[in-house]
Amino acid sequence: EKVPLKLAVNGKRYKLQVEPRTTLLDLLREQLHLTGTKKGCDYGQCGACTVHVDGKRINSCLTLAVMQDGKEVTTIEGLAPGGDKLHPMQEAFIKHDGFQCGYCTPGQIMSAVACIREGHADSEGEIREYMSGNICRCGAYTNIVAAIQEVKN
Ligand code: FES
Fold this sequence. Notes:
Blueprint: E1 3-9, E2 12-18, H1 24-31, E3 50-53, E4 56-59, E5 72-74, H2 88-95, H3 105-117, H4 124-130, H5 141-152
Parallel strand pairs: 1-5
Antiparallel strand pairs: 1-2, 3-4, 3-5
Helix pairs in contact: 2-5, 3-5
């Protein structure tokens, strides 16, 4: 049986009906068709599904949608200010080649923005520790750190 859920996603308000067992990740991808948020492992190990809830990063595969009732979600689709403009972190990832295949990139960027916002970007070591939950199979870590450092400075 479905239950009601109110959610703001990327500034848009939704009134939804969801199965209680639906994860936030599946809700975003399948019900709202916001497929920028990726499903890597689906059990909290890879970070591909990282989004912001009320400004804090979260693995969207690890939380039920109903637990986020009334909250504000930001996904990679909602990060840029709009129009043709990218978010500065997106620009920095392009400039520093912070990806190869790109599958982990939305999650990396959501974490990278949170890394600075939450004050964990003062040194390379701090950045690497904060970003350690975001796995990149292509091994673009050095370039991702460089992108974060550029936005921070
Ligand atoms: Fe959520 Fe891997 S899909 S952490």
